[in-house]
Amino acid sequence: MHCPRCDKPMAPTHLDEVEAHQCPQCEGHWLEGEDLRLLESTVNVRLFEWRTLPSEELQARELACPRCPPRQVMKKVRSERDRHVLLDACERCHGVWLDGGELRAIQEMGVAAALVDAVRFIMNN
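That's the Transcription factor zinc-finger domain-containing protein sequence above. Prediction below.
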């Protein structure tokens, strides 16, 4: 699977019990829809080094879902807990892309429940 931001191959990784994929270049994370429920209770902030959020201009770029061909464009969802975080969620597979630094920002503002909120928003619209 390739990074939707920089098109580099992503490597499987674990966030405690949650499986994810991480881009070695931009350090973003891809989370499958079914893993998001686990994320709220298992992700630990200490797993991540400090990262700054990407610019809003970079976050606003349209991204294709790395899981759903052909070029399924992901929907932008602004985090309710941190208005500086703009998540990318796929309406088809319900996966979520987090740019480098976004997961930590969400956790600091109210744990990873913001991810679950984003996916619920996508699924209900």
